[in-house]
TrEMBL record:
This is SnoaL-like domain-containing protein. Residues 8-60 form the SnoaL-like domain. InterPro entries: NTF2-like_dom_sf, SnoaL-like. Pfam families: SnoaL_4 (PF13577).
Length: 79
């Protein structure tokens, strides 16, 4: 299966000790000859929270909010 992710534009709101980031995301999957269709595409957005500890930024929250799916929703599932 071929998988591809595209994101952007990335927006970040930085404060003293934490930050919030977000961007739109599209994920496409392709599996030639799959029953029900070769392609599935997810459309949504990523939301990330970061915290600064000891001078280093660390991701402490990560969420993908799905808007909708196009194509073969069962692509890649095993029976």
């Amino acid at each position: 299966m071929i998988r591809r992710r595209d994101v952007g534009p990335v927006q970040v709101d930085v404060r003293q000790q934490d930050a919030d980031g977000s961007c739109h995301g599209i994920a496409s999957h392709h599996l030639a000859g799959a029953p029900g269709g070769d392609t599935r595409v997810f459309f949504g957005s990523y939301h990330v929270h970061l915290t600064k500890r000891d001078g280093t930024w660390r991701i402490d929250g990560f969420r993908y909010a799905l808007n909708y799916i196009q194509g073969n929703v069962n692509l890649g599932q095993r029976a």
